[in-house]
Amino acid sequence: MKIIFDEEKKVFLIHTNSTTYGIAIVDGKYVAHMYYGKYLDERDLRYLLREDEAPLVPSVNLREKGAFLDCAAFEYPETGMGDYRESAFCVRSQDGHRASELVYTGYEIMEGKPALEGLPSVWGKKEECATLKIFCLDRLLGIKATLLYSVMEDSDAVIRSVFVENQGKESVYLEKVLSACLDMDDRNFQVLGLFGSWARERHIQRMPLGYGRQNIASLKGESSHQEHPFMALVTPGTTQETGEVYGMNFVYSGNFIAQAEKSQFDSVRMTMGIHPEGFTWKLEPGEHFTAPEVVMVYSDQGLGKMTRTYHDLYRQHLIRSPYLHKKRPILINNWEATYFDFDEKKLLEIAKEASELGIEMLVMDDGWFGKRNLDDSSLGDWFVNEEKIKGGLNNLVENVKKLGMKFGIWVEPEMISPESELYRKHPDWAIQIPGRETTQSRAQYVLDFSRQEVVDGVYEMIAEVLRSADISYVKWDMNRQLATMGSSALPADRQGELYHRYVLGVYRMQERLIRDFPDILLENCSGGGARFDPGMLYYSPQIWCSDDTDAIERLAIQEGTALVYPVSAMGAHVSVCPNHSVGRVTPFETRGDVALLGTFGYELDITKLTEEEKTLVKVQVEKYHKYNDLIREGDYYRLASAAENRYYDSWMIVEKDKSKALLFYVQVLSRANVKSRFLRLAGLDPDKRYQVDGKEYSGRTLMQAGLRITPEMGDFRSRTIEISMCQ
């Protein structure tokens, strides 16, 4: 980890252990991109800028500034001056003009990494981080932009952000403030992203990058089920082990855009940040705006190295929970067991049976508050329904604790039902446009979390519930998207700030929750996986991966999620069959093995299981305790994808010191008349010997020749195989 500035050549070099990021000052004022890729020890990289080629720099070719702006590689391109590719920054002045020219004025290289006010961000000790600040100024408007680049000594990631200050005399309107831009020559890149819908989130998809613009985006007020705040450019033929990858991941939980554009000159511009549609931020003199972070990762060893870089960074420098490096309690959630039809007797029946099988926590899901017996009322009425929970919440919790179990609870703080006491008292607390029908979804509105009094009011109700009993876990849900965006607390020229202010309000409330209740395990959720992003991981160590709990559907969902996020962050449960989402019947063992790659728990009525299934629960509980430390802390390797080959799925987790590993294999579809398969393993020490099923192999043999996997009769069969280094 090192940041260097060559004063004579006006070149910045940002080095991680394996990568180099190069920036240069061109023509005395333009901040230009030189290089991002594998580590270089060369200091003079200015030749990569093509400064001696037409149209030359503006100070040399006085008549062709526009041509220069439209082809140069910029670190932070702007609107309105002649660069017609996608911009990263757009500001509107009081007189209505949309143009700026941010000229380089200086820099600072500092130890440590500054936190971002009100935003989640990567963190680290002062001695293990370094940050480059590049200062730019639009002298006409008095707008100062600080470009931030941070690196960590134990990571190959480059963390980007932008800090904008109004040092002028008039207010301006920021209409676009993206967080990162990367300009480079095309190498027949493909765009790789994560796509889907409710119950089938984050499926991996690759697309060729042709001329024009290709984007991945959300305008739903959340990172969304449909598209995800991650984009990678990959070279042709990139696999898990080979090929070049340029990844960007947005540390933010609201509207976003990630875009790749191939220009007329075969250059590529990759950008990421807050989506400019619906966004305008009024910046008064003396005020500032901070853009959320983008985490950039380059890999010259395929997708696998990128994945492990993200995993390690997020485990060590993003997630803050005291549960991060601890075994999480095995929970059972009553949602798919009962839905709204439960009382304290039914919950205690589930808890009693679960405790006898080794399950450690009961989670009471939706339906415990107000008059909530269906999903059409009571959101916002955060007080216990004592007609349903007779004797009150504390009595229920204490009875659960007598069984040796912890207790958790479900909440949806951001929503309000039109049929609720809170809405009757505070109808203006809902996001709405006066005179226009407010769009309902799931019979609910969205609370205006841009308003501090709304955040405070809802928080106090929920905090009172949490104080009333010994609650160990909170599942925070968000079950609809934002629409009809209007706030009664914002003036007309600030309504464009609502989307972002809403997200900041969510962050404030979650920060307060984990500060006031530091021992609570917080799990985020949004209709399943609609807000599974780095911003949420800053507050909670795990996120409910998807409402689809079918083990076979989960293969693709968890593969896409684990491409970027640590497996310890994926909420995964064993559920009943036929599965409630797709009706599929899957062996109980397979459901357990797939859920093992995550936080692990149960989502079923355990009182209705057969004796054979209850015995299998005990086996799965034992398996979780045996392997969770390895799964939670180890390195993840993807070996095969059923989404690609249709027939089998496989991955493995390897201990950091390579002393042991756990191999997962799922036979998705059985085939007639086939031979055994040799599965090449990964991540082992090639020069050490390992024991597998009573036989010895060298690590090199297992990775090059493979481990023989024999086919089984029947679909949806799984197995886990322990691999241990010989003593």
Automatic annotation (TrEMBL):
Residues 649-722 form the Glycosyl hydrolase family 36 C-terminal domain. Keywords: Glycosidase, Hydrolase. Pfam families: Glyco_hydro_36C (PF16874), Glyco_hydro_36N (PF16875), Melibiase (PF02065). GO terms for molecular function: alpha-galactosidase activity. Signal peptide: none annotated. Its EC number is 3.2.1.22. InterPro entries: Aldolase_TIM, Alpga-gal_N_sf, Alpha-glycosidase_related, GH, Glyco_hydro_27/36_CS, Glyco_hydro_36, Glyco_hydro_36_C, Glyco_hydro_36_N. The keyword Manganese does not apply. Residues 30-284 form the Glycosyl hydrolase family 36 N-terminal domain. It catalyses: Hydrolysis of terminal, non-reducing alpha-D-galactose residues in alpha-D-galactosides, including galactose oligosaccharides, galactomannans and galactolipids. Substrate binds at W198, D365, D366, R442, K475, W476, D477, M478, N479, C525, D547. The active site is at D477 (nucleophile), D547 (proton donor). GO terms for biological process: carbohydrate catabolic process. Belongs to the glycosyl hydrolase. This is Alpha-galactosidase. The lineage of its organism: Bacteria, Bacillati, Bacillota, Clostridia, Lachnospirales.
